[in-house]
Specification:
Elements (H helix, E strand, L loop, with lengths): L1 H22 L4 H15 L5 H13 L4 H44 L3 H8 L3 H13 L7 H16 L6
Length: 164
C-alpha cells in the first residue's frame, strides 16, 4: 500500500514540476507564487508556515531560490526520487525553451520583423509573466490593466516600427 502511495506522490510531484518548468516563465517571485498556490492552497502538501520557513532557508542558501524550493518540496513529498525529478523537470524544460529561442534568434535575427519584435520589444514575454503571476495573486496589478496592455502589445507586434 505504501509503495503505491509513494509512486503516486512521485508522479504528482513530477507532473507538477514539469508543468511549472515548461509553462511558467519569469523570475523567482512568479515561480514561488505559483509553487505556493499549488503546494499550499490546491494540494495541501504544506501549510503556510512550513512554506515560509522553506522560503527563508532557500533565501539564505546561495543559488536560485525557486529551484531550491522545487528541490526541497520534491524531497519532502517523494524522497530522493522526488528531489531528483522535481529538480530535473523544473530546470530542463526552461533550459530547452531558452536554447530553442536562442537558436531561432541566431538563425533568424537578420529578418527585420524578428529583430524588431524580439530584441527591441520584449514586452510580450514580460506581459505573459505578469499575467501568470497575477493569476496566482502574486501581484497587485489589476487584471484588466494586464489584459488590455497585452492586447495593445499583441497589435503592436503587427504594426511597423519606424526606423530610429
Amino acid at each position: 500500500m505504501k509503495d503505491t502511495n509513494s509512486k503516486e506522490r512521485l508522479k504528482e510531484v513530477a507532473l507538477l514540476f514539469l508543468r511549472l518548468g515548461a509553462t511558467a516563465f519569469g523570475g523567482a517571485a512568479a515561480y514561488i507564487a505559483i509553487m505556493q498556490q499549488e503546494t499550499v492552497r490546491k494540494r495541501g502538501w504544506l501549510d503556510d508556515q512550513k512554506f515560509l520557513d522553506m522560503l527563508g532557508i532557500s533565501n539564505l542558501i546561495p543559488g536560485p531560490t525557486a529551484t531550491e524550493m522545487a528541490l526541497y518540496i520534491g524531497l519532502e513529498q517523494a524522497g530522493w526520487l522526488g528531489y531528483l525529478s522535481a529538480g530535473l523537470l523544473f530546470i530542463v524544460p526552461g533550459m530547452l525553451i531558452t536554447i530553442a529561442i536562442a537558436w531561432a534568434y541566431v538563425r533568424y535575427a537578420s529578418l527585420p520583423v524578428v529583430h524588431m519584435n524580439i530584441a527591441l520589444n520584449p514586452t510580450c514575454s514580460t506581459q505573459a509573466a505578469v499575467l501568470q503571476s497575477n493569476a496566482c495573486g502574486a501581484t497587485r496589478i489589476p487584471g484588466s490593466f494586464s489584459i488590455s496592455r497585452s492586447i495593445v502589445d499583441f497589435f503592436n507586434f503587427y504594426l511597423p516600427v519606424p526606423n530610429l
